[in-house]
Amino acid sequence: MITLACLVVVVAGLKLASSLCIPILLAFFIATVSFPVTRWLRERGVPRFFAVLVTVMVDFVLIGGVIVFLVMTVGQLRSRWQGEYLPMIEKKIGQGREIALDYMVKMGNDPKESERQINEVLSDESMRNALQGVEAQSWWDVSKSVLDFVLGVFGTTFIVVLLTIFMLNEARMFGRRMNSVFAARGPNFHRVLTACKDIQKYLGIKTVVSGLTGLCAYALCFIMQVDFPELWGLLAFALNYIPAIGSVVAGLPPVLLALLMRDVQTALIVAGGYLAINASLGNFLEPMLLGRRFGISTLVVVFSVLFWGWVWGPVGMFLGVPLTMLLKVGLDNSTDFRWLAVAITKEENSTAAEEIIIKEAAEPKGEVST
Hints:
The protein contains 13 helices and no strands. By secondary structure, it is mainly α. The chain has a domain at 188-364. Mean pLDDT is 75; it is low at 134-140 and 365-370.
């Protein structure tokens, strides 16, 4: 009971401290993903200060470009909604009304009564008012709220940039500093460094796989002539960080748009293409690159996305799996709570986890690697 009470206090503290934790997490995420760039520049003789500065400038130029692209795309969506998409939806609704009426007549219902019932649900006036409400609320207000969220997240840009600079600047010195702490009879942070290295590997591989997913989604939408293929590629890249749920959400808008602009066959092809992309990259390539050490139960993945999303909102949903991975690696490197790491591991990886535990227990603990 005391342990559960402490857990409640910790979770409540994390939720209340979201304004402090979110910038730190964003900085950690950006620094972890972009550290290979800094290391590549350092290996070619670039001074540390300039290597870090170039890396941070590249990161935030890309982020700024994405924000500008979203603003421009939202404007294009809003203009095309009234002039092009709205008449298409009304036409599809009319076709659906006729199909429903024919089906009810074939079932033996009275034609006039069937037409009256269908018009009560799918009348031109009610559907037009609903679609106009979607235009007024969804495309503008919702898009504006999304942009406000993006700008709000990076409203503390100065803090995020400052933390990213310090994290990148001290990343290579962190290991040597921990060796000095251990030499001064302090605690051994070897397991912490191992966990950070594993998380860096996970985020790096996840970013590469997400980039490939975005490129494949863009190519699929471009070939099938779905409007705004760049937007759907960017959406697939971003939502691929949210396992299980993200791929489904990323595939819905282009499938619906293909159904609206083309036909059912085109929509099915787009849906099948998204399923093939997620199956080949998410279920084959990504596990092959990550290896068995990072296998997490699907139920735990979904729960972590929902939990961290509840704690820190959309940012928590994006970083939920990396945070769970950090927790898993930390538990895996703990003597008392290693059984929890095995409990949240995929079933087919349980034997491999036991082998890793036995192997690590037999290895001598030397100096902390830098």
